[in-house]
Amino acid sequence: MAQAKDLYEILGVSRDATDDEIKKAFRQKARQYHPDNKETGNEETFKGVNQAYEILSDPQKRTIYDQYGMNGFRGAGGTEFDFGFGDLSDIFSQFFGQTRAHRTTTGPERGTDIRYELVIEFLEAINGCTKQAVTQPLEECAICKGTGAKPGSKLKDCRSCNGLGEVRMVSESFFGQVTQIGTCPSCNGSGKIVEQACSECNGKGQKRIKKTIDVKIPCGVDDGARLRWGGKGDAGRKGGPPGDLYVIINVKEHEVFKRDGMDIIIEHKISFAQAALGGHIKVPTTDGEKSLSIPAGVQTGTVLRMPGLGVPKLNNPARRGDELVEITVETPTKLSAEERKIFEKLAEVQQGKKKGFFP
Ligand SMILES: [Zn+2]
Ligand SMILES: [Zn+2]
Q1: Which own/partner contact pairs does 269-275 have at CB distance under 8 Å and 24+ positions apart?
Q2: How far apart are CA 219 and CA 123, in angstroms?
Q3: What pLDDT was estimated at residue 1?
Q4: Which of 36, 58, 222, 231 has its CA 20 to 30 A from that of 312?
Q5: Euclidean distance between CA atoms 226 and 73, whole angstroms
Q6: What integer pLDDT is reported at residue 285 of this predicted model?
Q7: 344 or 96: whose pLDDT is higher?
Q8: For the purposes of burial, counting CB atoms within 10 Å of the CB of 347, is it exposed (0-12), middle (13-18) or buried (19 or more)?
Q9: What is the pLDDT, as a whole number, of residue 84?
Q10: Which of 19-33, 35-49, 320-334 has the highest mean predicted lDDT (pLDDT)?
Q11: Distance CA 312, CA 221 (A)
């Protein structure tokens, strides 16, 4: 057969022939062996010349041929190429975007991860809490033990692939017609199908089961945090490990407390008199009400720090940020008769002070 010969030999060119030399040689050989040529025509040789030209005129195919010879186009006959997958998987994936790994679905498969959104209160995030997550992971079907077969029903060879788990598909590509080997869609690559499907799981071997999981939220968790529970996702297949559960934390806003990294910020209003005199006031903290000392003459906008009353550090709750108290001095808008008297007296005294300076 012509295919057994070296392609360069078939065209009668050297291995470093230029594209032009290959084209010229092809035209000459094609004319010579064309079946219509009554003197030198030879269909078999003509096909070989055509094939040699098809490969050597294409830079990519020529590279494959130079590296692997006709093994790069195993089973060649006419224009139908059957690619060997063994050492050529890289080339295959380069041309078809498919790798060997995608073909082998017969091995253990890891279960899918589950994502669960959880909304918690601000104080729950600071102090930690335990919440319940209701998930529906895929579990092995208890009736068929994951086989998908009705109990008592046997597995039989898949008819689509004759039990091989692989199917050959002939398709058009820039190589001409190629045969691709793919996972059999009927049996998912296992080569077996069930005679009668399990009615509990519709033959899938897995079923979604509602589960309630206690989710312990550590103190100090921040909005958007992603917590992982290993093995709480969907069950694996064919002995593969289960997926994981990811809990995404959404922390609600609080009307008093705001978070800034490790610190908690509050705004606190004090009276005119408190601001002038200073002293101790009660302020809310995430640990309950605490006493805060304010200096006499404190102004609006002053920030007072309460060390160790901020956000606990994740996984090390003994370390905490601070609470920052932003002071606002309130000017009274409504005065009682008594307050009015006092303010008038105060005004008089302050006027007197001024008169003292500017008589
Ligand atoms: Zn089942
Ligand atoms: Zn099959």
Answers
A1: 269/328, 269/329, 269/330, 270/294, 270/298, 270/327, 270/328, 270/329, 270/330, 271/329, 271/330, 271/332, 272/329, 272/330, 272/331, 272/332, 275/299, 275/327, 275/329
A2: 9
A3: 41
A4: 231
A5: 50
A6: 97
A7: 344
A8: exposed
A9: 32
A10: 320-334
A11: 9
Domains of the chain: 2-82 (1.10.287.110), 113-146+202-253 (2.60.260.20), 254-359 (2.60.260.20)
Does 292 have pLDDT greater than 80?
A: yes
Residue 105 CA to ligand 2 centre (angstroms): 12
CA of 140 to the centre of ligand 1 (A): 8
Residue (of 260, 261, 234, 259) closest to 245 by Cα position? 234
Averaged over 164-189, what is the pLDDT?
76
Ligand index nearest the alpha carbon of residue 159? 2
Q: Amino acid identity, residue 218?
A: P
Q: What is the pTM of this model?
A: 0.58
Q: Which ligand is nearest to the CA of 141?
A: 1
Whole-number Å distance, alpha carbon 183 to ligand 1 midpoint, is: 23
The pLDDT-based confidence of 92 (bands split at 50, 70, 90) is very low
Q: Strand 211-217 and strand 206-208: pairing? A: unpaired
Identify the nearest ligand to the CA of 151 by its number.
1
Beta strands in the chain (DSSP E): 80-82, 114-120, 129-135, 138-140, 155-157, 166-173, 176-183, 192-194, 206-208, 211-217, 226-229, 245-251, 258-260, 263-271, 279-285, 288-294, 303-306, 312-313, 316-320, 323-330
Structural contact between residues 215 and 135, judged by C-beta atoms closer than 8 angstroms:
no
What confidence score (pLDDT) does residue 214 get? 93
Residue 94 has pLDDT above 60, yes or no: no
One-letter amino acid of 62: R
